[in-house]
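Lab notebook: predicted structure, single chain.

Context: the supervisor wants predicted structures on file for every construct in the current expression panel, including those that have not yet been purified. This is the next one on the list. No modifications to the sequence; it matches the entry in the shared construct table.
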Amino acid sequence: MKWHQGISLRTVAITGIIVVLLSIGFHFYMQHDVRKFEATLPKAQVPMDASTSPVAFNPDATEAALSSEATLQNGTETKPSAVSLTIRRI
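Prediction complete. Output recorded below exactly as produced.
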């Protein structure tokens, strides 16, 4: 074999085939490993139906709560107070 001619086409082809076969094997091994890992994870809980949830949004109850906040104990109505945000510079 003459070293000054470089790598033969046969060596390149065999090396390429080996790399492709190793890549395919690694791909299938990783799929198997992920399936095995997912089987060890705990099962997720099924969420409750929103209609039976005790904290489900009820627009009628929200409007009633807002209207009752607008009335003081002595019967006078006020506007809900606005929330203010103060930004400080450092």
